[in-house]
Structures are given as structure tokens and as C-alpha cells.
Amino acid sequence: MAGHILLAEDDKALSALMQDFFRAAGVAVTPAYDGEQALVLAQAQPFDLLVLDVMMPHLNGLEVCEAVRQESDVPVIFVTALGQEGDTLAGFCAGADDYITKPFSFPVLVAKAQALMRRARGLRLGASELGYANILMDTASGTVTVDGNPVNLRPKEAKILELLLREQGRTVSRDLLIERVWGTDFDGDERMIDRHIASLRKALGTASQHIRAVYGKGYRLGGST
Fold it and tell me: With a threshold of 0.90, does the pTM exceed it?
């Protein structure tokens, strides 16, 4: 999954729709249906993003965000029917990174969430590090981990992964793979590329789901289908 979010929305029908859109984009979702439950979940495990309704039972979204901000800089989006300027300012003062008023576009919400998660992930990475979801590569040391566990890659598999990480979300053509990974030493056909991709996927285990074949074009790390 390309990120894991906590979705706190007390309208269960709306929550279900939002969950469908996030999951269709490859984002894992843990739902909460009141503010108290949301705060317990947010403090119990790490999330890549919090999506909070403002008007919820027990604790409102502002209170949840303020409590979370005492110990975490996780990105927060408020989704609420409160659209006055004062409401928006209160949301940002509580620590929100974005504020969306209802009714809203589901694809726009997903796009904003993905942008915030990418930005936060980039800030956490060092200068020599590349990452996507649970994959992390340190180009200086040549190490690759999935969920913090080391992964052993052959040199060309590592070069393929580095290129996919640098171009994440965009399709990498077979011609570009040949140019960047093999260069003038390439002496084979497209099946050789496919075999190396298959070997890379096997080494990455469950994280291999993030590498997608784009029919007739090449491969992509992440992005929608």
C-alpha cells in the first residue's frame, strides 16, 4: 500500500465512500467513527496521514489534532462542513496541513492526501535516501530495506529499483531501463528486462505489489492503475 491513513469520520456512509476511493488509489485506511477512538488509534500506531472530520462525538477534530501535535508532526487534513473563514483559521491553528469543506471531490481529497504523504516522506529521508511506501534505499551505502528488513539485490536489480524510485509515479520505458541500467553493454531483448524485474519483485516480497507493468510501455513504481 502507498501509505496508511487514519480516517476519522462519524458519518459511516461517507466514511465508506472515502475508504473506497483511498483504497482504489492503493492507500491503506484505518477508520474511526468518533474523536476519542481516533485519538487512541493515532497514539497507538504510526500513520502517514490523518484525515479528520471536525464535528465528531466525544472529541472534535480540533481537539484530536491538538493532542496529536504534542507528540507528532504527521500530516493532517480536516474534512468538514464548517466553511467559514474563522473555522478554517481554527483548523490551521490547531495544526492542520490542509482544510477541505464539504461537499468535496473525492479524487481531489485523495490527490491532496498523496501529495502531503509524499512531502512528509521526502522530509524524513536523508540526502542519499530514496523511498516509496515501505521500501527504502540508501544510494550511498547501497542498502535496501522493506519494512526495515534488509533486502539483498543483485547490482542490476538495485539499479532498476533506484531508477523506479527516482521516477516513482511515472512510467519508465524499457528503452530508458536499457540506457540507465545496461548502457552500451546491453546484448539481449525485452525478455531480459522482464526477467530482471521478476527477480527484483521476488526479492522485494510483499513490496513487489508497488511495481506495475504498463502494457506496451514499461514499468512504474506506484501511481494509479
Answer: no
